[in-house]
């Protein structure tokens, strides 16, 4: 639906640029701050989000016979069909007049087009170091996945219960090579098929998973 308006070819836009491969979109995404990167990690690994685009559209409004515009940071679409435009800013920047104007333009445009508009700051986005590390690992595992056998996936899922169980325990039960098992569990987490305590413990053999 949307394509990014600004890519890494842009010479004078943003600091701390990130290029990251999105398995969800099957393309490289372009991010222009550490905060945008951490937000993308959450969007990419949120199974309720089926589509997104960074820097998707230039929103334009006319006031006092003048055109005012702003390029918003992200558009997301959820499984339930809901769409949201998101502007990502550090909270200190919200005090700047230029940022206030930018957000005002976006708000007017979104209301006129009846689309939800959100402002997210580091207070909403910033991850604890453990979860940040785990989401990076999750994305890495999914990206290097080589289409595991569906029977193997079903066999592993049969050993994941409502009660939490460590990945090592599942490995002991299934006798599947640990790296293959770990990769499949990461895929299941990415898809939202199972749960994990990866907000409090580094993802590994002692992590617990459950339905």
TrEMBL record:
A Pfam cross-reference name: Tn7_TnsA-like_N
Q: Name one GO molecular function term.
A: nucleic acid binding
Leader sequence range is none
What is the top-level taxon of the source organism? Bacteria
The TnsA endonuclease N-terminal domain covers 46-122
Q: What is this protein called?
A: S-layer protein
Organism whose genome encodes this protein? Lysinibacillus fusiformis
